[in-house]
Amino acid sequence: MTPLAAFVEGVGLLGPGIADWPSGARMLSGEEPWASAPTVLPAPQCLPSAERRRTSAVVKLALAVGLEAASRAGADPATLPAVFTSSGGDGHNCHEICQVLASAERQLSPTRFHNSVHNAAAGYWGIATGATSASNALCAYDASFAAGLLESVTQVSVEQTPVLLIAYDASYPEPIRAVRPIPDAFGVALVLSPAAGAHSVVRVELALSEACADTLEDAGLESLRASVPAARSLPLLAQLARARPGGVVLDYLESRRLAVQVSACR
After folding, report:
1. Which domains does the chain have, with CATH numbers?
2. pTM
3. Helix 234-242, helix 219-227: angle, nearest 10
C-alpha cells in the first residue's frame, strides 16, 4: 500500500466523561484524570424544530462532533465532503422497529423507517448545515473507525480537497445489547486537508501494518477503547493531544492493522 497523508485541521470529540476536544485532550495527555460519566448529547439546535424532535442519539452525536471539528478547523461545514462511519448505526431505532414487527399491529412509523437507513446521520447533517458535497456512509463492524479514516485520507489524497470524517457509535437496548454490549455513546470527527493551513494540528500518514494495535495505559480509557468501535480512535487522539511526533497502530482487520505516523505540520 502506498502511504497516504493528510493534515488534521480540527478535532471534535464527545463521549463518556468527555464534553469536547479540549477536555478530552487534557485527559488523554495525562494533564487531568479521566472519570467515566454518561455521555451528554446536546440538542441539535442547528436543525429545524420538526427534524430536531425526530433525531436519535447517533444523529445528535454525529452532528455535535462534526460541527465542533469544523469550527475548530475554521471551515464552513456546508462545503466539506464527508465520510460517516459507524459499526451499526441507530440501535435504538432498530430495536423499536423489531418490537413493532413482532407485535400484532405492525404499523411502522415513517419516522422510524427513514431513521433506519445507515446514512441517516448524513441526511440530517445536510439538513443542519446545508451541505451539498458528496458524503459516504461506511460500516465495518469493529474496524469502522479505521475504515473511515482510510477512506477519508484516500479522498483527501486523490481529490486534493478537505474532507470531514465523523465516526460514531451508541449503545443498544436489550436484548440486542446482550450480544453487542456497547456501553455508551462515543463520537469523534476530524477535518483532514491535503495541505497545511493556519489551523493545522499535525500531519498524518497511513500504511497497513502487521503490528499489534496500540492500547492505553489508563485502565478506564482502555476499557472504553475496547468496548466502543468509534473509541478505537483513542490511541490516535492521545497522540494528537500530546502534540508530538510518533506512531500509533489502530485496530483494523484481523490480519492487518492501520499504522498512523504523526509528524509536525512544517
Report:
1. 4-201+218-243 (3.40.47.10)
2. 0.94
3. 130
